[in-house]
Amino acid sequence: MSSTLHPHSETSQAAAGGLTVFAAVMMLVLGLVNLFRGIMAIVHDHVFVTTPDYIFKFNLTSWGWIHLLLGLAALMVGVGLFRVSLWARILGVAVAALLMLANFLSIPYYPLWSIVAIALCAFVIWGLCVVRQDDSWT
Q: What's the pLDDT at 95?
């Protein structure tokens, strides 16, 4: 539709594009950090705090592989989000939710970063969910 019929459509499209780009960049940051975090846990698991009686206890090498794979998925989705496609937004929400869950479960092993990552995932999910299909730029 023409911007003369909807005077705020250009502003709306710019905001939608900005939120999607924000989510894409944050997804790339989360992907890189989780990739490095996974490598750290696989190679040198003594970097992490050990928690003896944690109910969701995993071997730190297992946590490393989980974070490594989620980091790779976040990187791929982050790149896809620059195309502003619906499938990338849906996968972005799913991967951010999985990252949020993984970081929640690993709070005892790396508390500060886990809480920061949960907040970043929440912003990514928000940024991807507030964009309507008709607001996407092509």
A: 96
Residue 74: which of 38, 116, 111, 109 has the closest Cα? 38
The CA–CA distances, whole Å, from 38 to 30, 48, 66, 126, 135 equal: 12, 11, 7, 25, 36
Structure tokens at 54: 């944690």
Residue with the two structure tokens 């709306």: 12
- What are the structure tokens assigned to 60, written together? 């730190």
* pLDDT, the chain, mean: 79
- List of residues 6+ apart from 1 with CB closer than 8 A: 9
Q: What value does the mean pLDDT take over residues 83-98?
A: 89
DSSP assignment string, 89-137: HHHHHHHHHHHHHHHHHTTTTSHHHHHHHHHHHHHHHHHHHS--GGG--
Is the pTM here over 0.85, yes or no?
no
**Is the separation of the CB atoms in 96 and 125 below 8 Å?**
yes
